[in-house]
Amino acid sequence: MKLSQIMQDVDIVRQSCDFNMEISDICYDSRQAVKDCAFLAIRGFRTDGHLFIAEAARRGAAVVIAERTPEENVPYVLVRDSRRAMAQMAKNFFGRPDEELKLIGVTGTNGKTTVTYLIKHILESNGKKCGLIGTNDIYVGDRVLPAQRTTPESCELYKLLREMRDAGCGHVVMEVSSHALTLDRVYGLTFETAVFTNLSRDHLDFHEDMEHYLQAKAKLFEVCRSAVVNYDDPAGHKVIENKKCYKMTYSAKENSADLVAKNIQLKASKVEFEAVTTGEINHVALGIPGMFSVYNALAAIGCGMSLGISLSDAAICLRTCRGVKGRAEVVPTDTDYTVIIDYAHTPDGINSILKAVRGFAKGRVVALFGCGGDRDKTKRPLMGKAAADNADVCIVTSDNPRSEDPKAIIDDILPGVRDSKAQLHVIEDRREAIAFALKNARPNDVIVLMGKGHETYQEIKGKKLHMDEREIVAELLK
Fold it and tell me: Which residues pair with 272 in a beta bridge?
């Protein structure tokens, strides 16, 4: 494709190259540069793409797109914003696939992954082929690809959208993180429906404070045609404030919402309730326990309704929906106690899963958790307190320490746990911590392994080491 076509609608400051040149590919990682590609110099968290222009040129890049004039003698285009330029260039290079798809974006602190899977299930049960982009996996038609981050960079994102459209997908449902919205990974996209789940403390290592975090989430509702939001979360009101899109609210408390859950029954293996909207009421059953599942179900039903699927059809679909890996996932053990794996990695996430377990546990609630390294340190004692307030036994261990000292992370957690009535154990090695929990389990206990969820690795000192908690439990119980 000619560079002139790729640069269409990009905010250009100055150019020093031939716009008629043919471009073979676009990339922002110099290691992926190939002959005749366009290399985008992007400012990142740890480094600056402008420092790798020489390497990209050596590998064959025909032109550099940058925010400042390259020191190297290479053809270049100066742009006002490299990230926005990358999104627009990717959109053009991959043939504007978003314009041929109905995009559904789900944002919020907790519940995004489950809600996207529920929406996908509802759409596909109603004959609509659907792609999915999220934390666990990426679905391109019938192909399943591993996910590297919640929302891919715009280069990968537009490429995936093209592949999904070519695979026959008419809808794509995706998790949209606050990072993605802040860093313009979804720049240029218009969403048919945007869903807001909730907002609680997270990612304050990236956002300055909760207000900036909220503002990042709210950006999604500036680029959508309809919004489906949690009426019971105060942030739900704020993200749609002064927005021009069609709005639908859902609630488990307020009759004034557009979609309301009534007669809620929380059971050990599922939730059941009556979904009520104007002139219609339907019974809903979802095989994932916990009050959060009521909210997730309402979000998915509301999204389905915004896309023209009736309340009754959406409700019927949820009865056949299975759980999501790493989200309130019950591990087969053949024991007189239960083991659950959950991705909870925020104070609110820990609070939600443990309260759900408390609702059906006949024995003790055992909470095993750690905190991620190189992430918001201020939430660590709050996570400890959330666990201690809702569990009988707290086992504090490691999560993904990354570049930090695991012991130092644990020391940050402990102030939130020490003054509680919960029995406290500190075991730095996560495998040993799991072994301790299983060895000391009593009949009817529920052991909740929190933080890893779908992940099958542990990241220590820059290395990802294989760690699948399902495998560990199975091995320890042999």
Answer: 265, 285
